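Hey, I'm writing a tutorial for new members on how sequence and structure tokens pair up, and I'd like a real worked example in the thread rather than a made-up one. If someone can provide the structure for the chain below, I'll link this post from the tutorial.
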Amino acid sequence: MKILLLCLICSILSMEPKEYMALFKNNIVTLDPSYASTRQNGVDYGEVKRVTYYSNTCGRDKETIVILPSGYSNSEKYPVVYVNHGIFGNANDMLRDDLGVQIIEGNLAAKGEAEKMIIVLTNMWSSKTMATPPMAYTDEVTEAYDNFLNDIVDDPYIEQNFNAKTGRENSGVSGFSMGGREGIYIGISRSDLFGYIGGACSAPGIVPA
């Protein structure tokens, strides 16, 4: 077994990048359904609410976007997924149809293939001294994004103002690019709070590479 594994590793290491990506693509066994990422007639994609909360982490007000599921009711509680934007972006970026956050959840929930959930489109920038990020990729910038870990944990605005289920089995965090990095970083750092983590095209820097 060890010899076979060693041969497999050597074979992969000798591949050209295009060969490796083709191998990777051919072995993906779970793909999103073709209907999931386009708006469908008759599907209710929920309500978009823009809210402001005071961040104790940053010492200032911050804005975030909350997508309530179709038929949101005060008599029912819902799992929560936090979705983070890319570097220099904001919560509005993740509302874009081509990123599909609201659309995919609405389509899958309408078919009974996903639970109805509250989606929180975050504003990750969590500097204590700067309200907006400088256009640079420096240690100071990445530390301010990493500081969102404290913002999301220490300022439970969503749980206090919406019908959110609590517990790691009802909580997820993910994102795109820098938001993917933060989704993985937050999820690994606080696996006691988040049972589901993920990242799309995640930025580097979580571990040495």
